[in-house]
Amino acid sequence: MEERERIAVTGASGLVGRELVPTLERNGYEVLRLVRRPPGADGEVRWNPDGGTIDREGLRGVAGVIHLAGDNVASGRWTEAKKARIRDSRVQGTALLARALAELSPKPRVLVSASAIGYYGVRGDEVLDETASQGSGFLASVCGEWEAAAEPAREAGIRVVHPRIGIVLAAEGGALAKMKMPFLFGVGGRIGDGSQYMSWITLEDLVSALAFALENDELVGPVNFVSPTPVTNADFTAALGRVLKRPTALPVPKFALRLGAGAEMANEMLIGGARVVPSALHVHGFRWEHTSVEPALESLF
Predict the structure, then answer these.
(1) What is the CATH classification number for the domain harbouring 296?
(2) Fewer CB near the last or first residue (10 Å), C or N of the chain?
(3) Would 122 be classed as within a structural domain?
(4) Domain presence at residue 46
(5) Shortest CA distance to 106 belongs to which of 67, 64, 66, 148?
(6) For the residues of 166-210, what is the DSSP string, one character each?
(7) 163-198 confidence digits (pLDDT tens)
(8) Entry pTM
(9) Which of 18-22, 118-122, 178-182, 228-232 is the least confident region?
């Protein structure tokens, strides 16, 4: 029997990881899960990003790594302590993993190390592909440091891909779970004037794109993981209302969001937006299942 390639995954218990792991296994890979607790089963490798430790021996022989771990940016207000957790969980974890992979022999072929479209900051209706400059703000700063932390792996000759992930639409959990609740109670509506862009991707397409990045040797560096058709918040709101068969007549005032979430978080994650397009995925032949937002929402519900 031909030996299966081993792929290590961080964040395997999260929204994306729970879908990714069985997909990789169906594709013929053996999956190693990096966990913070003592390993409780075969296929688990311990690491502790906070403590700077990782089981290098457990990683020996992996062909690739998909790194998804990081503190949830949307859970809780952005206090200084929360912002430190967001930054440290990404930068320290990535640096630890990249150094460990660089020291392995043989080295893995590829590290797919997640990033986010927050890299671009709030950019209005400017069309942003992978060549666009880094934006300003907290998330842009974190994403820049997050991607730079993988440098030891790049220097060691490992192919490094940074998926800049957009708003993930999933049937359960994630951003959509929070978005749909007001609609279900009949009080849904656009945010402010609704002109801000939402660059989205379904969970199904995100998982497929991660597997694509793992296997496509020509894909390297930053890659926008979004659908080809970003939409304004007003258009997204209208589509979600039609799918849920709920009214969308009550816009959410910007000041209310700033009061509720804090000005910085509200401005960067809710009121602001970025019109991001997936040029690299398109050039390299990736095929999306969902390219229009309303059919995508219908498929999820």
Answers:
(1) 3.40.50.720
(2) N
(3) yes
(4) yes
(5) 64
(6) -EEE-SSSHHHHHHHHHHHTT----BTTS-SEE-EEEHHHHHHHH
(7) 999 999 998 888 888 888 777 777 778 888 899 999
(8) 0.94
(9) 178-182
